[in-house]
Design brief:
Length: about 1000
């Protein structure tokens, strides 16, 4: 409720007013949309447009009295009706009857609204905006962004919607201008916080709606530049300059011209956001160091040496120290202890990663860089794909900051180099089993075993001084038998500390028996192995069996449910065993319900399984149960997501049951959480009786192929299983592996390879008399033929697929083929039959309750309706599909549906909305879908941009699309050349 001359600007506040005299309910008013009132959440009738105009005029006067003359002028202006005064009194009387007593008052010949300031949505919006400005001034840009978004969220369409009168018209314009100003502030904060890629879509739509608003153009240029789209950013400037000259006869503002020059110079500062995203979700000051052990002992000289070295990071060089030594010698413990001591030197944060260098599958540098960049506050959408680009962005992000990076368990210097900061002020600590002589500039530290004094001190701290003091000689024998290796000492001392009835002499006697240790005094891994033998030898039989069998499983960790399958035990029994192994320091608790081995302990556990597991067949049975668990659970996920789909009926039978889920969201969560472990299990299970189940596991987990994060791993395993199947002469397994590979190539846009795999799968499945892969292969070949413009061939493949699916009584497969055939007919100009086929396929999906595939049907139907000119219906079907794809985390189909919605928008003349949808499609499809699909989206984006007058940006998009099509030798290149010709001629 505001002053006569318009809404208050943020920062002005009214004095609190008394609550309404009548009733204790909650009265609310809204003017940031239709003029409305609510009492205790229930809407109140606001009357005719003129009555709403009266209410609005009173609400915007902030509780002050408006005279009858002022109200008449507000409602009718210079042409009031003859009975205007009577009408005002009538409107006021009606409002008084609707509102609680004491709210609408008459005084001094006029009227006023009395109530709390926060009863009006405009006041709340202004208060939020004022708080946002304070937060921004204090440097809390993330909080400011949240508050601005809350303020904007109070808008519900056009302010004072449908309210007549000159006063309402004036206030409507002022409120809309203020909303745009808030939007600009919010978008400015988006860019400050690193959300430039997400901002491009919104800014594109806003510049189309407000083409002469230069601040929006400036923000769009900056967002495009920070998204790596320099040419488009410059094209925006060219479009703006031309528009301003044509429409207003003026040049762009100096700010816009300066921004263009900075982009031309590739100004480094321009590319860096002012502040990273909010710390609540993406901390800009990471503190990732593991906890230091409370009983850290000795290593005084090493601690001093490393601490002094790290202190030099504040000088002119970036400090790198690399610790090397055998497993179990205490490299990580020392590095973590020193890193904690050095934290005051690195106030901007500490990063940590276990590079898993001693294992078979070391961490990929690009994966680690992605995690580091997210921890430093970089948005996912701003993280580039290639290793070199990620490393460059990582170094840029660290420039000017003082961050310590602890790279634990590195494989070699090649793995470490991309992860090193590049400037003074930062430092890196590296631990590895190998000496990194080829890591330029590194300070090398060779970590040896403890001295006898240090070893005894560590042992004493864990066991207790009283017990050691009584048996000092026995304690020296224990640490000597451990080879003075810190990890071995810790395991032995912890075991003793947990058994109060044992004496130190009992433990020493056990260690004296060399048959219980494997060459513990030898150098290298054998010494580590001897240390692990101590802990393993003290396990109860059930614990030892669990230790051995769990070591057989691949993957970064293992869930409790999967471990129970390996051990063939109920969950609670398995949990007891796993927790006892955690207590024995032979297993780590990675997270609640998840466990992992240290890489060397895992190798030792496997050696124990090879040596001790009796009968030997139990090893294979344990892995078979794990494979059964993953296959049965993945099949259940598939069935929940795709009710009625017959694939699960054609999978290899399993004897170990899998998990059940409350709903499809829980099922999806499980699939993506277990992706790495599931794929590792499939890869390890290649060969013998498990090969077919491994291939079927891949087939049931098909969603991982298009998830982006897991698609590369899925392809690697599919390729390996395809080769293993061929080598073993198992045509049935090879056909199914080829289907999985065909799908991978299809979603990646490698259509020739997809068609080759599908063709071979058809032949192999026919020879193996395996009908379902033959159906899938024909369906896939039909889709690929569509993309390759081989329409008659595609129609034949899909007709064959429909016949075969019907023969298999697979209605879901039949519906898929019908929808794909719809797209073939559409490409051949048979629009009516395309609509009919898509409707038939969608109806079949709906009849089965198949939401996900029903979305695929609606996608096909949306395309057919678009071409038939039924644009509203097409947008509805595509919108329904988009909602399901997003909910199901189907990124490929989400992106493609946005692309198709953009096509509908262009056909309907909604070019600004088309540009926004195409921009979102580009963002969603980053890293998936392949270059051909990206070219299609860029082509449509260019059409949309041309439609809103941004021809310069359109040309950039088309040029990029043309480069993609020419590289792929795609026929779409001709279409894009035709689009570019008019501009070249001009």
């Amino acid at each position: 409720m505001d002053r006569e001359d318009g809404p208050r600007v943020p920062g002005q506040r009214s004095a609190p007013r008394p609550a309404p005299a009548g009733g204790g309910g909650d009265l609310r008013f809204g003017v940031l949309g239709p003029v409305r009132a609510w009492y205790d959440g229930d809407p109140l009738p606001s009357g005719s447009p003129q009555q709403r105009a009266l209410l609005a005029a009173l609400l915007l006067r902030d509780g002050r009295t408006a005279t009858a003359a002022e109200l008449i002028d507000a409602i009718w202006g210079d042409e009031p009706p003859s009975q205007a005064l009577a009408a005002v009194r009538t409107y006021a009387s009606r409002l008084r009857k609707v509102l609680p007593p004491g709210v609408l008052v008459s005084e001094s010949g006029g009227y006023a609204i009395r109530g709390r300031a926060d009863a009006l949505d405009l006041n709340v919006a202004q208060e939020l905006a004022a708080e946002a400005e304070k937060a921004r001034a204090a440097g809390e840009r993330g909080q400011a962004r949240v508050l601005i978004n809350k303020s904007l969220g109070l808008w519900d369409g056009e302010p004072l919607a449908s309210v007549p009168g000159p006063y309402a018209e004036t206030q409507r314009a002022r409120l809309e201008e203020w909303r745009l100003s808030l939007l600009e502030t919010r978008l400015d904060l988006d860019l400050d916080c690193g959300h430039h890629a997400e901002a491009v879509s919104e800014l594109t739509a806003l510049t189309a709606a407000h083409p002469l608003r230069e601040r929006l153009r400036e923000l769009l240029m900056l967002a495009l530049y920070r998204s790596g789209r320099q040419a488009e950013a410059l094209a925006v400037y060219a479009d703006t300059r031309r528009l301003l000259a044509d429409e207003l006869g003026v040049d762009p503002a100096p700010e816009l011209s300066r921004l263009q020059q900075r982009i031309l110079r590739a100004d480094v500062e321009l590319a860096r956001p002012v502040e990273e995203p909010p710390a609540a979700s993406k901390p800009s000051r990471p503190a990732q160091l593991p906890a230091t052990v409370p009983d850290f002992t000795g290593r005084t000289a090493f601690v001093r040496e490393l601490r002094d070295r790290l202190a030099t990071a504040e000088g002119s060089v970036m400090a790198v120290s690399a610790l090397a030594g055998i497993g179990g010698v205490g490299k990580t413990t020392l590095a973590v202890h020193v890193a904690h001591d050095a934290r005051p030197h690195f106030p901007d944060g500490q990063l940590y990663v276990d590079l898993q260098g001693a294992g078979a599958r070391a961490a990929e540098p690009e994966t680690v860089l992605g995690a580091f960049l997210r921890a430093l506050g970089t948005a996912d959408s701003a993280i580039p794909d290639s290793l070199d680009e990620r490393a460059a962005l990582y170094r840029s992000t660290l420039a000017g900051r003082r961050v310590l990076v602890l790279l634990d368990n590195a494989r070699d210097a090649a793995q470490v180099r991309p992860l090193l900061p590049g400037t003074a002020g930062c430092a890196a600590l590296v631990t590895s089993r190998v000496r990194m002589v080829d890591l330029a500039g590194a300070h090398l530290v060779d970590l040896d075993v403890m001295s006898p004094e240090e070893a005894l001190q560590l042992f004493t701290r864990i066991v207790g001084a009283e017990r050691v003091r009584a048996e000092r000689e026995a304690a020296l024998d224990v640490v000597a038998a451990c080879g003075f290796l810190p990890l071995a000492i810790r395991i032995a001392a912890s075991r003793l500390a947990a058994r109060r009835t044992w004496t130190v002499s009992v433990l020493a006697a056990k260690l004296a028996d060399e048959r219980r240790r494997l060459d513990e005094l030898q150098a290298g891994d054998l010494a580590v192995k001897a240390t692990f033998e101590l802990g393993y030898g003290q396990l109860e039989p059930a614990q030892a069996r669990a230790f051995r069998l769990l070591g057989l499983a691949d993957g970064p960790d293992i869930s409790l449910a999967a471990a129970a399958a390996v051990l063939d035990l109920p969950l609670h029994d398995a949990e007891d065993l796993l927790e006892s192994l955690v207590d024995a320091s032979l297993l780590e608790s990675a997270a609640p319900g998840r466990y992992r081995f240290h890489d060397l302990v895992r190798l030792y556990a496997r050696a124990c399984a090879e040596r001790d597991e009796q009968p030997p067949a139990e090893r294979d049975l344990a892995l078979s149960r794990l494979l059964d668990f993953y296959l049965a659970t993945a099949a259940r996920v598939y069935a929940i997501e795709r009710p009625g789909d017959r694939l699960v009926d054609h999978l290899e039978p399993t004897t170990y049951r899998g998990l059940t889920f409350a709903d499809r969201h829980a099922a999806q969560d499980w699939l993506y959480a277990e992706a790495d472990c599931l794929l590792a299990c499939a890869r390890r299970s290649a060969g013998g009786d498990s090969l077919r189940r491994a291939v079927d596991l891949l087939w049931a987990a098909l969603d991982l192929a298009e998830s982006g994060a897991n698609s590369k791993g899925y392809e690697t395993v599919a390729t390996a299983l395809r080769q293993d199947s061929r080598s073993s002469g198992d045509g049935r397994a090879e056909a199914r592996a080829a289907i999985a590979l065909a799908y991978v190539h299809h979603v990646s846009g490698r259509f020739d390879q997809a068609d080759q795999e599908a063709r071979e799968a058809m032949a192999l499945a026919l020879e193996a008399d395996d009908p379902l892969p033959r159906c899938w292969a024909a369906n896939t070949r039909g889709v690929i033929a569509l993309y390759q413009n081989h329409h008659a061939e595609g129609e034949n493949h899909l007709a064959e697929a429909i016949r075969d699916f019907r023969a298999c009584e697979d209605r879901a497969g039949e519906a898929s083929a019908l929808c794909n055939l719809s797209r073939i007919h559409l490409a051949m100009g048979r629009t009516a039959s395309a609509v009919t086929l898509a409707q038939e396929g969608t109806a079949m999906y709906d009849g089965m309750g198949h939401a996900l595939k029903g979305a695929n049907g609606r996608y096909a139907l949306g395309l057919a309706l678009t071409q038939s000119g039924r644009l509203a219906a097409a947008a509805d079907r595509l919108g329904e599909a988009l909602e399901v794809f997003r909910d199901s985390r189907q990124r490929l189909w989400e992106g493609m549906t946005l692309f198709r919605l953009a096509e509908v928008d262009i056909a309907a003349g909604r070019h600004a909305q088309a540009a926004a949808n195409a921009e979102m499609a580009l963002t969603v499809l980053r890293g998936i879908g392949g270059e051909w699909r990206r070219g299609n989206v860029l082509t449509v984006l260019g059409r949309a941009l041309a439609g809103i007058g941004q021809s310069g940006r359109a040309q950039v998009c088309w040029q990029e699309a043309l480069g993609i099509y020419e590289e792929l030798d795609s026929p779409e290149a001709g279409e894009v050349r035709a689009l570019l010709k008019p501009a070249r001629a001009a």
